[in-house]
Amino acid sequence: MYKIPTLYGLIAEFEKPQQVIEACERAREKGYKCMDAYAPYPVHGLSEALNFRKSRVPLITLIGGILGGSGGFYLQYWCSVISYPENVGGRPLNSWPSFIPITFEMTVLFGALSCVLGMLALNGLPRPHHPVFNVPRFALASRDRFFLCIEADDPQFNLRDTRLFLEGLHSREVTEVLY
User: Fold this and answer.
1) Is the four-CA dihedral 15, 16, 20, 22 of positive or negative sign?
2) Which 3 state secondary structure label does DSSP give 175?
3) What are the angstrom distances between the C-alpha of 36 and each of 23, 29, 47?
4) Where do runs of H (alpha helix) occur along the chain?
5) Which of 29, 98, 149, 179 is 20–30 Å from 48 (CA)?
6) Regarding beta strands 146-151 and 35-38, do their DSSP bridges make them parallel or antiparallel, or are they unpaired?
7) Residue 42 contacts by C-beta under 8 Å, 6 or more apart in sequence?
8) Hey, what domains does the chain have and what are their CATH numbers?
9) Are 12 and 148 in contact (CB under 8 A)?
10) Would you give the distance in Å from CA 127 to the centre of its chain?
């Protein structure tokens, strides 16, 4: 069955990093919120121009580390005090100093795993295909071109007005992005 292509948004191509930063700032001033920029290398100031919010990955990592450390400590406590209480060498059953190495290791393990999994989930990965890959000139995004894509989901988006706006930013080319 043939799927009818639907519009994902409009993408504008720029030749210099400063142009895409200025385009992002002007688009934000105009009221666009659902947009993304693509560059072949990190561009200082681009994330601020896009108005990225702070990441939640550090909080996810902290929660994962706390849960891992607590779980590791409780598992040792349960084994030593509740499930199999064995007096070895006259030490108390709840000998918490001996629990520290495994508690630390579980904190690091769960923190690292939650960090990686949280980052993948928040980035929407794995994503083997993105609609911008359908634009033939987008291959230049990994070489020497900069792109700004305004998505059709944006409440401010109007095909004709958005196209005129992007063309007015002195972009090299404006292309429709289809799913």
Assistant:
1) negative
2) strand
3) 11, 15, 9
4) 17-30, 46-50, 57-77, 100-122, 159-167
5) 179
6) antiparallel
7) none
8) 7-51+129-178 (3.30.70), 57-122 (no CATH)
9) yes
10) 12
Q: Which amino acid is present at 175?
A: T
Residue type, 33: K
pLDDT digits (tens, 9 = 90+) for 8-55: 999 999 999 999 999 999 999 999 999 999 999 999 999 999 988 889
Write the DSSP symbol of residue 93. S
Determine the residue type at 94: N
pLDDT for res 2: 67
Q: Which amino acid would we find at residue 155? A: P
> What's the token pair of residue 133?
């890959």
Low-confidence ranges of the chain (pLDDT < 50): none
Number of H helices, E strands in the chain: 5, 4
What is the value of pTM for the model shown? 0.76
Classify strands 35-38 and 7-14 as parallel, antiparallel or unpaired.
unpaired
The pLDDT, as a whole number, for residue 1 is 60
Report the SS3 class of residue 170: coil
